[in-house]
Amino acid sequence: MANLLERGGRAVNWSGIAVIVALLVAWQLLGSSTLPTPVDIWHGFQDLIGPDGGLADALLHTVQMVFMAWVIGAGAGLVLGLLLALNPTVASWGYATVDMLRSLPVVALIPIAILVWGTGDMTEVILGAYAALWPMLINTAGGVRGVTPRLRDVARTLQLSRTATLFKIVLPATGSSILVGARLSLATALVVCVVSEMLGLQSGVGNQLVLEQSGMQPARMWVYVLLVGVLGLIINAGLIRTFRVLFPGVAAVAERSSK
């Protein structure tokens, strides 16, 4: 038990927590009429978690939309990234299109998407998936191209088929790049979904944030602003934890390469 507590204590980033606490204290001391203090925001949070606050419904909606958009976008990015890196014909025809499309700002596409598909959930999922596609695609293609030739020589020596080479050689060697792409895709999907909710969609955290701003409720507005940051932190940690459980070797390599 003591060893478990000791390992848990080492895993906590106490320096980072100290910085957050210091920032909150400074914020409380420097608060003004236009900038609500953390205490004011806490009172606003208590109002919003009430039966008529609407925070739970908005949060649930945003989480569902982000997850759906991420699954679609990251899945498509993984497949297309593998095709671009492994098939010279697809690469010769597709890279110029990829470079053009990923350069388009997603925010500029939000009004067009609302005109075409309306203000429903489908619009939010499409925008989030489109944004999540590119980080996964680029990281996957780059990771596959970076596989050392020695591993491919091993596959030829063992006379592995293309399918076996993909699943036994390429994907394990590319795992760290795929994990990075998945994390970037998830964060991008979250940002785009919240922004699309702010710019015209009728539900979610972003929509509630705009409503609180219009109602001149800065403390409650800041609750939703901070909620987006906390949500991003939680889903990123959850994704990393899932990879550690399902693919411990891949997660370990990714963590070593990030240090």
Question: How would you summarize what this structure contains?
Answer:
The protein is mainly α and 259 residues long. It has helices at residues 2-11, 14-30, 38-48, 55-86, 88-102, 106-117, 121-145, 149-157, 162-198, 205-214, 218-246, 248-258.
Please, could you describe this protein's structure?
- By secondary structure, the protein is mainly alpha-helical.
- It has one domain: Orthogonal Bundle (MetI-like fold).
- It is 84% helix and 0% strand.
- It contains twelve helices and no strands.
- It is globular.
- The model has no long low-confidence stretch (mean pLDDT 80).
Q: What Rg is obtained from the alpha carbons, in whole angstroms?
A: 22 Å
CATH architecture descriptor:
Orthogonal Bundle
Count every helix, treating DSSP H or I runs of 4 or more residues as helices: 12
Q: Tell me which oligomeric state these chains represent.
A: single chain
Text of the CATH class: Mainly Alpha
Q: What's the layout of helices and strands?
A:
Elements (H helix, E strand, L loop, with lengths): L1 H10 L2 H17 L7 H11 L6 H32 L1 H15 L3 H12 L3 H25 L3 H9 L4 H37 L6 H10 L3 H29 L1 H11 L1
